[in-house]
Amino acid sequence: MEGPAPDFMIIGAPKAGTTALHAALSRHPDVAMSTPKEPKYWLCEDAPPPAYVGPGDAHSQQEWVWRREDYQAIFAHDDGPYGSHERLRGEATPFYLWSPGARRRITTELPDVRLIAVVRDPIDRAYSNWMHLWCDGLEPEADFLTAFSRERERIRRGWAPFWRYADLGRYGEQLADLHQRIDPAQILVLRYRELVDTPRAAVDKAARFLGIRTGKVDAIPADNSRSYVEPGWRPRLVGPVIRTGAWLGQFAPPQVWRAAEPRLHPLLRSEHGAHRPRLTPEARAALIPAFAEDIDLLAQVTGDDYGAWLDPESRGSFRERSAALSAVP
What we know:
The chain is α/β, with parallel strands linked by helices. The protein is 44% helix and 9% strand. It contains 14 helices and seven strands. The strands form two sheets. The protein has a five-stranded parallel sheet with strand order 2-5-1-6-7. Strands 3-4 form a two-stranded antiparallel ribbon. β3 and β4 form a beta hairpin. The protein is globular and about 50 Å long. The termini are far apart.
């Protein structure tokens, strides 16, 4: 790729801590992270994004950076050197790992780029993905397993990648393909649990991979989890209003719906607040067969053990795990 381009990318996976890692690296003095955080350029590359039709899809597509000159402009400004070297430029679009087209385009046009993939237990990731969309009022299915089972139907109907609860978590096949396209030494696989359990060490691990100084970021900010919305009359009444508003948002500048959306979200939630439930062992057990083969492939590709992901017990969200660790004396 001629012209300004990123030196590295956080390529996935959605709901696996990529926002938190992006925020942490944004604080590093040797790094300049992109604005916007998720340009999504390599999902389409010089062509408008597909006309996705899921709830909120048309509105969110207005924010995709798909023209080459617009993408390069993100990286054209250098905020100054550190020492004798310029800062590394990076971006974070967590759908690149999932997308075969993005993997091909990135490795073809940026053969020297470094890629960071953050992986999370694929069942917990899928549940968090559903929870995100449900709590935003966009997911019409109040039951996670039902929503999970509708993935193929939604793909046929043209819903956007964020609705792929299963496909986004098949890291084994994604990384196997990536290893065929680029030197594996240019790929760092981080675990979600590293970002939560040992955040400073996780950031330093990423820093060493990128060839920048360690010890420059003390903590990782909290992730972007939503307050839980209980099933009931509120989402039945307010949810359709939000989904209609998101659809109408495509006909106005993106900032119009972004300003209106937060005013509707509180209407979804009860006054007393609701406890965010964990996925039950029974539900996890029902979904393990959907990922077991890919988990085995991931272990073969990376040489690491992911057997814990076959356990029916959930390990919890970023917020839960962080709170538990903070409570330890």
